[in-house]
């Protein structure tokens, strides 16, 4: 007998019919002789509908009251799913975040879990019950209802799996696993049977939406095996774990891309000590995430810098830099969009030199200019013009021997929360 | 500065527009220099919509999970109302039942409050905040979410008012007070400026839907003055308190009626000791509420009994009695519907003999037969044929000098929960 945490996102429980399908799936797992804890998100559009109502009443959407409001979404889901599973003749019990023992920081909208006290969950499991837990929510020491922010239900599932020492945490979504790249672009994208936490983390950070980075970090930290699989099919999913088996000759596991990229260039910056620290410190204080940073050389005691931010942050980032001109003088600031960041990820890269060089060559062979480069032990990212994205991805996919023999299954819109 | 608990029912917060009206009303109360705690029900049809979804998934509607489900309704209301009041520039905080300190029996669907620990509410009041509390809900000692059942939000408001020693508990509803009788029947029904707890209790039990009996009992016990008033107008409401001022010459305060009445008659019952106890004990065990009981005489060692139950309980009551025939033999069992129970209520009755006789006379003068009679210190009830209900009520209203000079304001459908 194994103990599984099964997480179902909002679109998997979008209506009562889907809820019944999830119920049957959970019951089946129990029939196979396993103990089950189910973590569930709010049903389909519930969260958006609640936000719409709130906007009418207070356009500032005060964070504490928004947590009070939005946590009802998951509470509705757990109650209904619990009833659905009970109607299949099983004993179940549903718990809100605070009932399941999720303690968090006293922060609203994006609290981090500080502690899990899973005694009630464990007791109910011992009683032979299927336990259904509300994702995305917890309670602060002061007894305030909090939410974990985006990707919260994934994090709930992983953290709970770690706390109760589950054998695995299964993330059910509307794709049937992690793919070597976006199957909408590359029809022969390959479903990965295994991938390491670190690779998954890079892919997650690079905009592959299957798992939230925070959940992967939690899984890595606590060594909980994750399984990403479809709630609509019975296909084997992708296992995310410490050390993934490397397929023969495959050094790159996946290719990701991110269109949400703007490049800002600051030209003719006075090359005095502390310039970089001052500039990027100011951006950090404004909560602007800077991704790739490149210093492109010094002439006449002046330096040129480029860095990338998300499209949303572009205007604010420029304002911050302009506001510092009296302290950090520069000649010119420019920005550019229509770009895309393409990344290759693979744990095998570290022992295979020339992987980056091959990437530059493939991109160039498509007649596409590389604007910025950034590398880590298991990743190479290039910021390029976005015009020939699909061609570049397809060429890289083939070059790194990722093409599968059959076409990928492509699900609906993905399940994020 | 006074401390008020203001309770708004589901139709008062039925949509965002009404929510905003309630918000302004609460802000106004604060502007008048008062501290405010607001108790609120689920918005309009929320509860029914949740029940409809639950029915699809599990027609047994398991009680624990139904409490988990339905308490989200009030949680949505408090969050939205809190945001609406904040947008008027006030500091507010919303609390669920368990956050506000409502401890209940470990029973689902109809728990009684065992204790209130209002420290968080009091602390927030001291901080100058308007406190918004979810009606209808609490928590058991085991940490289970419970609901108080029908009339629950009224009870929440009254119990909280008692616990925090509020100066009054205002129940905002869609009628502007307690009337001498149903204004839909008697256009010149009179709005009562004051009424005693005991009178209100009788009226509440007799089907006048403005306040739930449990809430009135709680108010009586804790001596919290209640005010019933409209959430749509600024008219003075009705004050419910220990001793209501008696108007000159008025012995009857109100006239109530109840159409939900069936009479069951058991004829030729063996007159052996314990017959009544056996019969009504069996009905009680089946949760059948028996209202009026009349033993109509003994001949040949056989007795005839009549009693009333609600229309819903009629069939079950007959089955229970028939099931006991071997132990409690009788000749015949019959039942009758199309009846109505009419009651006159007045604290002044006790010192004015002849009030009951006058009632019988008025009913007879309308050519209506009286089938059963029951009296208490402040009430006389008659079960009569339902055919001429309106004429009888109007005649009684005039006879007891209750007719007002102006027509009553009649609101929409009443707010029960």
Largest sheet of chain A, in brief, is: 8 strands, mixed
The CATH homologous superfamily name of the domain at 3-173 in chain A equals: Acetylglutamate kinase-like
Number of strands of chain A: 20
Indicate the overall shape of chain A.
Answer: globular
Strand content of chain A: 25-35%
Helix content of chain A: 25-40%
If you average the pLDDT of chain A, what whole number results? 90
C-alpha end-to-end distance of chain A = 30 Å
Structure report:
Chains A, B: It holds the Pfam family ACT_9. Chains A, B: Belongs to the aspartokinase family. The structure is a homodimer of 417-residue chains. With 417 residues, chain A is of the alpha/beta class. Among the domains of chain A are: 3-173, Carbamate kinase; 264-336, ACT domain (Alpha-Beta Plaits). Helix content of chain A is 32%, strand content 26%. Chain A has helices spanning 16-31, 46-57, 63-86, 119-126, 152-163, 197-205, 213-222, 275-285, 314-323, 355-365, 389-399; strands at 3-8, 35-40, 92-95, 102-104, 113-116, 130-134, 137-139, 145-147, 168-173, 194-196, 226-230, 238-241, 254-258, 262-270, 293-299, 302-309, 332-336, 339-345, 370-376, 379-385. In chain A, the strands form five sheets. The first copy, chain A, has an eight-stranded mixed β-sheet, with helices on both faces. In chain A, strands 13-18-20-19 form a four-stranded antiparallel β-sheet, sandwiched between helices. In chain A, helix 1 (16-31) crosses helix 3 and helix 2 runs antiparallel to helix 3 (63-86). Residues 411-417 of chain A have low confidence and may be disordered. At the A-B interface, helix 1, helix 2 and helix 3 of A face helix 1, helix 2 and helix 3 of B.
């Amino acid at each position: 007998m194994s103990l599984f945490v099964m997480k179902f996102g909002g679109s998997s429980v979008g209506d009562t019919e889907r809820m019944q399908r999830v119920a049957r799936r959970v019951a089946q797992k129990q029939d196979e002789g396993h103990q089950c804890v189910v973590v569930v998100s709010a049903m389909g559009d519930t969260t958006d509908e609640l936000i719409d109502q709130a906007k009418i009443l207070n356009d500032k959407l005060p964070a504490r009251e928004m947590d009070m409001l939005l946590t009802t979404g998951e509470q509705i889901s757990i109650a209904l799913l619990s009833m659905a599973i009970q109607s299949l003749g099983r004993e179940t019990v549903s718990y809100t975040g605070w009932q399941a023992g999720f303690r968090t920081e006293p922060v609203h909208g994006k609290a981090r879990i500080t502690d899990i006290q899973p005694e009630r969950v464990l007791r109910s499991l011992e009683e032979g019950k299927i336990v259904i837990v509300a994702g995305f929510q917890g309670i602060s020491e002061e007894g305030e209802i909090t939410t974990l922010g985006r990707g919260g239900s994934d994090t709930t599932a992983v953290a709970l799996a770690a706390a109760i020492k589950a054998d695995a945490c299964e993330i059910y979504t509307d794709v049937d696993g992690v793919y070597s790249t976006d199957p909408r672009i590359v029809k022969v994208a390959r479903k990965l049977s295994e991938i390491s936490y670190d690779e998954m983390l890079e892919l997650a950070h690079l905009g592959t939406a299957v798992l939230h980075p925070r959940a992967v970090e939690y899984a890595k930290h606590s060594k909980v095996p994750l399984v990403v699989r479809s709630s609509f099919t019975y296909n084997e999913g992708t296992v995310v774990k410490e050390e993934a088996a490397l397929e023969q000759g495959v050094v790159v596991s996946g290719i990701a891309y991110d269109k949400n990229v703007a490049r800002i260039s600051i030209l003719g910056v006075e090359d005095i000590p502390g310039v970089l620290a001052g500039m990027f410190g100011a951006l950090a204080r404004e909560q602007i995430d800077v991704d790739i940073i490149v210093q492109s050389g010094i002439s006449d005691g002046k330096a040129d810098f480029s860095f990338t931010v998300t499209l949303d942050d572009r205007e604010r980032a420029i304002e911050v830099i302009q506001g510092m001109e009296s302290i950090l003088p520069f000649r010119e600031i420019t920005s550019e969009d229509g770009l895309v960041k393409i990344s290759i990820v693979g744990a095998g890269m570290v022992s295979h030199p020339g992987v980056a060089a091959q990437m530059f060559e493939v991109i160039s062979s498509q007649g596409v200019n590389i604007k910025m480069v950034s590398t880590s032990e298991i990743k190479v990212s290039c910021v390029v013009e976005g015009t020939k994205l699909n061609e570049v991805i397809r060429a890289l996919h083939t070059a790194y021997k990722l093409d599968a023999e059959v076409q990928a299954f492509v699900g609906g819109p993905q399940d994020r929360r």
